[in-house]
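Hi R.,

Here's the chain you asked about this morning:
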Amino acid sequence: MLLSTLLLPVLLIAQDQRMDIFVDNLIQKMTLEEKIGQLNLVTAGEAMTGAVVSTDVESKIKTGQIGGIFSMSTPAKIRKAQELAVKHTRLKIPLIFGIDVIHGYRTIFPIPLALAASWDMPLIEETARIAATEATADGIQWAFSPMVDVSRDPRWGRISEGSGEDTYLGAKIAAAMVRGLQGNDLSANYTMAACVKHFALYGASEAGRDYNSTDMSLHRMYNEYLPPYQAAVDAGAASIMTSFNDINGIPATANKWLLTDVLRKQWGFKGMVVSDYTSVNELIDHGLGDLQTVSALALQAGLDMDMVGEGFLTTLKKSIQEGKVNEQRINEACKHVLILKYKLGLFEDPFRYCNDDRAQQQIFTAAHRSKAREAATKTFVLLKNDDKILPLQKKGTVAVIGPLANTGSNMPGTWSVSADHAHTASLVEGMREVLGQQVHILTHLGSNLVSDASYQERATMFGRTISRDERPEATIIEEAVTVAQQADVIVAALGEASEMSGESSSRTDLNIPKTQHNLLKALLKIGKPVVLVLFTGRPLTLTWEHENVPAILNVWFGGTETGKAVADVLFGDVNPSGKITATFPKNVGQIPLYYAHKNTGRPLGTSPWFQKFRSNYLDIDNEPLYPFGYGLSYTTFDYGDITIDRTKLTPNDSINASITVTNTGGYDGEEIVQLYIQDVIGSVTRPTKELKGFQKIFLKKGESRQLRFTLTEEDLKFYDAELRYLAEPGEFRIYIGKNSSDTKGVNFTFKR
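And here is the predicted structure, written out as tokens:
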């Protein structure tokens, strides 16, 4: 055992040396045109995420002008394309095939913002592993995932695609996703290369508008926005995708400071960097020059591969001839592409991912769908449950009313480009399958998704159609009320359609659409118990709903098995345990609103909520509707006082903070216990709270458990004004509780 451990580093070095020798020898044989061809990623058009479509793909493969293909699937199609590369090109260099595997492949898991709400790293890693198993069985080797952008603006549609507002949690999830996709052996035919996106700061787009500018200090960048990307790099991510936005005035795709100084020199990244969809070409509209100029800028900045735009393919040779590009940089970029292909085992066997038997046996399996159902139940967040309306009893009649009640195609959520919609049940279908004859289920559309037909068309793209009723709103609602009056309980299936969040789906109004709101008011007037089952890809402004609806269950978009999972939770087979990872504001005017804010020099006191000459609003208080980390359960949990084993911490010590949690309710359940710290006095302003630990525990009713959290100097470190990463001596406060607002605290000091 000891001998093998000692030999392991030698074997790894030898393996890397063999790879470098192979790739270097290959590059020496390549013409300039062949090298540039390896830097060209084109689309096959199956799952488009931009307006440009690649042309003449087959002939370009044969002439060595393509290094990879984006959005092609099935072993048969990929084998055919790969054969063109390895049988018809001079050097027989295989292609790499990628696609957006964001939260599942055919079997779709909850959207990433929902998965984050599970706070369950093993589960998140397992969903990524299943996604990789399915995608590689269909011939694909490269996932454009995970998306690790921190976002504190729910107007931005792509908040649905990430993990929310928190740096610490986002870093944990980024690493888990990379591990799940890549495993321990990138050359295994069931693992795939991760591509971390969008580097960097994309979640901070101004006004919450997609593709927009960003502007922030280096201090905020290093402390709050960059850590999840770095965590993914540290976890071994094979590739990075640049973002559309600018950073310090220079768009990421052409930002040498970002791609070379930070990514490669500071973080030691050795993988491949690819642009986002046509983001090289879009540098023209950013105002950086013509296509030749911006292509040269991007390459020299550190970009290795050009997605779809073909600026590299059509201009780099001319730039070399004119001395505007260093050929050594082309060699370096080409090497990064070839190394990725080598690590994936494509040089050893270009067809290793083209196994028809695997495609038949390992995609959309019963086991995978079962895991998707389980995962969905762990992401649902119980926002309100007055009078313990939930869980419902498995008897009587339930009316499921609303535009989200009977639309299976919307259940997977945004960014489910490979979803099998034909076998995805709607909410009503899933409930009927789970409940059988125990519960009689009635249903009605209730209202249109939105009153404006053109808006609804924009919000239901990519086959996510929701039927419309063009009769007057009052007529539709009256008919729905007649149906609901026949039921014992009313389930209102309302919120967003899946494409109301996601890419190019920014919103300025985060209320439930007005026509749905009118339906909900009418249902409440009936006088029967109403449960709002909320579908959303982002935090919504639910102030009226919170004040008037007795029970609210946020189910996000739960993936392939959403309908069954919702039934599992509504009727008590599963006790909800999800907790939100993005703050829900009371209205859009509070945005950006996040828990880890800094105090101003005039902070608002606790009472009253308005104080003149303090940092507040005239018309509303500063508090969120639902704070970060919030989520209820069918049971209740009591937190004891925090105890610590020492009050002074030094660099060589650790502090153990303990707390006893008791399940004081009537159901077994899971609780996510959260630990935050506050650096009370620093050389720079510091957040009022920062998440630094959490534990997800299961307690039977009446059971108590003592939990222990360990803190060291490392947990206190941050980047100071000089961007030094350190922990400063002084006073700190530990908070432990149910969410970022509901905590208990204790103080300690750090001394050198």
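One quick note: The longest strand covers residues 669-679.

Cheers,
M.
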